[in-house]
Amino acid sequence: MADVVDSNTEDQAIQPNKGLFLVIHNKEKDKYYNPVVKDGVTVDWSWKGAAGKASFSVYNDALLEFEEGDEVFIKYDETKFFKGFVFTRGRDKDGWINVTAYDQLRYFKNKEVYIFIGKTASEIIKAIASDLQLNIGEIADTNYVIPKYRGSNTTIFDIVQDVLDMTTENETDENENKALRLFSMYDDFGALTVKPLEDMQTNLLIDDATAQNFRYESTIDKDTYNQIQFYYDDKDTGTRVKRRYPEESASENIKRWGILRLTENINPKKPLNYEEMIKKKLAYYNRVRRSLTINNAFGDCRIRGGSMLYVRLDLGDMMLEKQMIVSHVTHKFTDNIHLMDLELRGDVITG
């Protein structure tokens, strides 16, 4: 049977407990419940384009009362792990309620029309969060000032990713050999957070001893291109102008794979360093795409989308010993056992 937590505040309701502790807050009645949970809890986090999601089943006894929009708090040992809102409830004949809760990034699925002039990505994200009445946490200074951005009836996730990508592409550093910064946006227990990935490094090692299984795949069937084509429409002549890089005879991978062409529209009047653009795009796209999924690794509450960890595994066609980026993680809490499934990417594993 569900317990009513003797509490008047959120902090009192989620005092430290050993193992998994889940609380549902009925906002209308201002009551906190610690329900009976069936088969544990899963929490999913992605690096880009998705809200954090918690999935679990609770027993629908006479005491428990909650509805869509009510708050969900999940702790594991001393860690405040997940804070979100009930979005979906489903029932079965045995009295169990299947619940899906999302953190506040769920509201970034809204479509909006925004125009920003002379703003950094961090300023844009803060403005959007304020517009949506979201709680703001640590937002890294993204430095690069975007001259103008127009988001027209697209999801806020797409808008945010656009401005972060523009920052990564345009940010300069005095040390030219230093890699451009990548960023992660996530909800940190109810606080919207943006950090560079270099601040999300961990000392976690995934190897044969810490992962039950893995799945490794290599492919040129997705997001692999060995030729870049730019085009624009010449209004004066009424013709379409195309330029391809590199020439077919110049690419070893064209000989190996055939022509895999990426075509993009450009503004010929915009001052851009096209040689540098081509160099960056070919460096990113002209390669075999490799994906690595780790199953049932020992759980670590620090790991979320955008976290960085170390991997040492024999993949068959290579011995991988690299620092990797977590593109997606599923944390699985069952009987106070914490495991996680990981999708990884990096300079060798490209996702």
How does this structure look, described?
This protein is mainly beta and 351 residues long. Helix content is 14%, strand content 48%. It has five helices and 22 strands. The chain has helices at 10-13, 121-131, 156-170, 252-257, 274-285; strands at residues 3-5, 20-26, 31-34, 37-46, 53-59, 71-76, 79-91, 96-102, 111-120, 136-139, 145-155, 183-187, 192-196, 201-206, 211-219, 227-234, 239-245, 261-265, 289-298, 308-314, 319-334, 337-345. Strands 1, 2, 3, 4, 5, 6, 7, 8, 14, 15, 19, 20, 21 and 22 form a 14-stranded mixed sheet that branches. Strands 10-13-12 form a three-stranded mixed sheet, covered by helices on one side. A three-stranded mixed sheet has the order 17-16-18, with helices on one face. A hairpin with a 6-residue loop joins strand 4 (37-46) and strand 5. Residues 173-178 have low confidence and may be disordered.
Could you tell me the strand content as a percent range? over 45%
Shape verdict: globular
Radius of gyration (CA) equals: 24 Å
**Largest beta-sheet characterization:** 14 strands, mixed
Number of strands: 22
Note the gap between the termini.
Answer: 44 Å
Provide the residue-averaged pLDDT: 89
Q: What is the helix fraction of residues, given as a range?
A: 10-25%
Helix/strand-derived class?
mainly beta
Give the helix tally: 5
- Which sequence of SSEs, written as H and E, runs from N to C? EHEEEEEEEEHEEHEEEEEEHEHEEEE
Stretches with pLDDT under 50, minimum 5 residues: 173-178
